[in-house]
Design goal:
This protein has about 110 residues and is mainly α. The chain is built from 2 helices and no strands. Helix 1 (about 15-60) packs antiparallel against helix 2. The longest helix is centred in the middle third of the chain and has 46 residues, at about 15-60.
């Protein structure tokens, strides 16, 4: 039967040049992700502005249609909550006071 000896692998030595290259690559990736995030945020902002403008135009056309458009769709995110809504107190439970150390600074003139 084979013994279960953990395999140990020696880590390769990383040169200073490789470390510098990795750091530059991480910075470049960070800048790329930042630009991507900024574009996405701008896109969402423009979509919200377009939606608000469309809702304003709809309100001008018909108040009933506007009210129907802004009504929350309960089926979109179904939510069911279950559990205790009230926890009865434990009889004869003495809550710990804890340690208290006075450390208020007093300033005098």
């Amino acid at each position: 039967m084979l013994s279960m000896v953990p395999r140990v692998r020696d880590l390769p030595k990383v040169t200073e040049e490789e470390t510098e290259q990795r750091a530059l690559l991480m910075k470049e990736w960070s800048r790329y992700k930042q630009k991507e995030h900024k574009k996405e945020a701008e896109m969402i902002h423009s979509m919200i502005e377009a939606q608000q403008e469309a809702l304003q135009e709809l309100r001008v056309e018909s108040e009933n249609l506007y009210q129907a458009a802004i009504k929350r769709d309960q089926g979109l995110f179904p939510l069911e909550l279950q559990g205790c809504s009230y926890t009865p107190p434990i009889p004869d439970y003495q809550a710990p006071d804890g340690k208290y150390r006075e450390n208020t600074k007093v300033y005098t003139q």
